Amino acid sequence: MNLSIAASAWVILAGVLIWLGAAWLCWANWQRSGKRRTAALLETLRLLLITAIVFTLFRPEFVQQIKRTENPEIAVLMDNSASMTTRDIVTTNRAGTRADWLQQKRQAQFWKPLEKSGKVILADFSAPTANTNSPLSDDGSDLNRALETAAQQQKNLKAVLLLTDGDWNLGKSPLVAATRLREQNIPVFAVTVGRETPIPDLVLENVSAPSYGLFGEQIAIPFKVRSHLPHEVRTEISLGEANWDEVKKEIVIPPMGEVQEAILWSPHAMGEAALKLKLPVQPDEGVAENNEQNFQINIREDKLKVLVVDSLPRWEYRYLRNALARDPGVEMHCILFHPEIGLGGGKDYLPAFPGTKEQIASYDVIFLGDVGIGENELSEKDAELIKGVVEQQSSGLIFLPGKRGRQSTFLKSALADLYPVVLDAGKAQGIGLQNESQLLLSSMGKHHLLTRFDADENRNDELWKLLPGFYWSAAVEKSRPGSEVLAVHSSLRNSFGRMPLLATRTAGTGKVLFMGSDSAWRWRRGVEDKFHYRFWSQVVRWMAHQRHLSEKEGIRLSYSPETPHVGDTVFLQATVLDTAGYPAENETVTGKMTSPNHLSEGLEFSAIEGGWGVFKASFIAQSGGKYKIQMAAQKNSRRLETEVAVNQPLREKVGQPVNSQTLREVANLTGGASASYEDLEKIVQKISLLPEAKPIEKRIRLWSSPWWGGLILFLLAIYWTGRKLAGMI
Question: pLDDT digits over 224-261, tens only?
Fold first, then answer.
């Protein structure tokens, strides 16, 4: 052990002069005290203190050299994650996977030259523990953990050889471990296994299927395809289930681009349908495994309950009523507030508006035509009930204004906040035109489920342009924030742009649609029911979808988002009816959530004010899989059990280029080197030529040591106490 002083020559000279001056003063004080023994002891102690302080200013350190007696160790870390199955390494005119290349090198014992310079420790990391082709797989690559584990387990680590594609998607950044390795003088040599550019490939990245569908309806299944091919691809994506013909859709994928589309599918039977969406493999594709995805949809048969409210039996009302009455999946009721002869009557007509919560809560969708608030029409209470059933019961509301302009009275009622658009109050009776106008789809409307008449987006847009137009429309200023405009007026503009005539928005847990023209019935011209019936059928089912996610007699549960991902907060809303069919009051709803890992926790359902029998709870999806939800309303003996499927992002993606940038940063930070898999032998040679590790240098910094400072304080205490006892102060 050696003593080292880190102070400069000027500091040392100043310290020596200070010490000499202090020594002279101590001697002089002893002389003046008559050379007493007590004074001699105190002055000696003072000189010792000054000596210690001056010595501290010299920044003394004790340096100990510890020689390594153990053989140096070299850790060879090999990536075994699912991304290593990417086929992008070409050897002998054959494309193989990264894992295959690594296995070949392992069999050839590429590390043999390293055994001459130290002990070689082989280790795999990020090995998959589940089916990585499943969308619920939680496997991933943690480079940081692999590096930290190697540093902790090896006592005399000389270097780290890392063979990986650099894809890290779990844990901290590998730069964290690299920083610690740098402090220990352990270099990391990284070999990038794979290509730095994407392999030619088509990837079916995402399929967003709904949790359930209704038997007899067309179900839209959105999907996303990404292309790593340098040319445009025209192909047909197919959707099918066992023992049934496939549904196909032609798509055009731009070079090195992506396309988001939806394919329509009609269920053949009720129950759980196992579907496969498949993309044909192109001749120049490098990976075929990522061209298809499997998923399931629960198919059931529900009778949707619809209420249509209007004033005059205009053509729009007549044809809408006929369309809904002929829909086998709809139970329709009508109310006609005729301004001259009173309420209309007949089959499916109600004698009065359902003016209680229990009566109106049974309706999934409500149409409000050219009707308003006033005598022999709706009341303020009715408007509040409609708002409540939309916001609290997840029902749908459709505004269908007419030439009488009665809907302008809603702008001073509870329904005013539900409008997706801002109406022009000065033109309550709308705008009439001499020439025919049409609805032009917006970019949102071209692919929205409500406005989809054809699976092909471009053809769908052309079909809307060919539909018969209208000669009257409501006067609209603009859309409200948060609304989605699906179609605009073909000819009328204002300071805000084209006039929106078809718009939707969310209100509470329900949906609201505004249709600003009264001529959808004209779409039947020449084609009968082809477009008119389909449009209103799609509207009703889209609006009622949320209400029927899970239900049983007297109890209903909806959740949002419908297809949650890991980390999302899932909001649950339960609607409970008592034994008489009224919204339950003074009820206590309990629940339990069981995760895919079989861990259970209680759910706290709290009642929502308003008397709608609504109770809300939430939980955070911590892992992918099916969550089992159990809930019970004890007083009314209502019970419900359902499952919520949570998607786990697929961390390990096949076909992605290597992350060479991160590996270069790790190598540079630790003083190592990085190279492509083709230069593995060069990297091994560099490690072999590394010099022997320097002895470990252990420094004890006396000048900053707590016990050294404590010793000086202790001596000062003795000195001042001694002066008081000696009567020198």
Answer: 898 888 899 999 999 988 777 788 888 889 998 888 88
Largest CA distance in the chain: 132
Say how far apart CA 87 and CA 289 lie, in whole Å. 10
Question: What is the Cα–Cα distance from 672 to 663, expressed in whole angstroms?
Answer: 10
Is the distance from CB of 276 to CB of 247 less than 8 angstroms? Answer: no
The pLDDT score that the predictor gives to residue 4 is 80
Domain interval for residue 432: 304-548
Render pLDDT for 102-129 as a digit per residue (tens, 0 to 9).
998 999 998 888 888 788 889 998 877 6
Return the C-alpha torsion angle 322, 324, 325, 330, nearest 10.
Answer: 180
Residues 377 and 512 in one domain: yes
Q: Are 236 and 325 contained in the same domain?
A: no
How is residue 650 annotated by DSSP? Answer: -
pLDDT digits over 428-459, tens only?
Answer: 899 998 889 999 999 888 888 888 887 677 88
**615-634: buried (b, 16+ CB within 10 Å) or exposed (e) per residue?**
bebebebeebbebbbebbbe
Question: Do 169 and 224 have their domain in common?
Answer: no
**What is the identity of the amino acid at 197?**
T
284 and 339 belong to one structural domain: no
Say if residue 555 is in the same domain as residue 675: no
**24-49, pLDDT tens digit by residue?**
988 888 888 888 888 888 888 888 98
- Give the three-state DSSP class for 120: strand
531, 548, 565 - which closes a domain:
548
**What's the confidence (pLDDT) of residue 92?**
60
Q: Are residues 342 and 487 in the same domain?
A: yes
Q: Decide: 216 and 301 in contact? Cβ < 8 Å.
A: yes
Say what the pTM is: 0.68
Look at residue 520 and give its three-state secondary structure. helix
Q: How far apart are CA 99 and CA 78, in angstroms?
A: 10
Tokens representing 696 are 């470990």
> What CATH number corresponds to the domain at position 497?
3.40.50.880
Percentage of the chain with pLDDT > 90?
29
How many domains does the structure of the chain reveal?
A: 5
One-letter amino acid at 365 equals V
What's the pLDDT band for 694 if we cut at 50, 70, 90? low
Cβ neighbours of residue 241 under 8 Å, at least 6 residues apart?
268, 273, 274, 275, 276
pLDDT in tens, 75-91: 999 988 888 888 888 76
CATH number at residue 612: 2.60.40.1930
Residue that is last in its domain, among 505, 526, 548:
548
pLDDT at 197: 81
Helices (H), 108-202: 143-153, 174-183
Q: How many CB atoms lie within 10 A of CB 399?
A: 23
User: Which contacts of 502-508 are long-range, i.e. CB under 8 A and separated by 24 or more positions?
Assistant: 502/439, 502/445, 502/451, 503/420, 503/421, 503/479, 504/420, 504/450, 505/418, 505/420, 505/480, 506/482, 507/387, 507/390, 507/391, 507/397, 507/417, 507/418, 508/390, 508/391, 508/392, 508/394
N-term to C-term CA, the chain = 43
Mean pLDDT for the chain overall: 86
How many C-beta atoms surround the C-beta of residue 650 within 10 A? Answer: 22
Closest residue by Cα to residue 215 from 115, 99, 298: 298
Q: How confident is the model at residue 72 (pLDDT cuts 50, 70, 90)?
A: confident
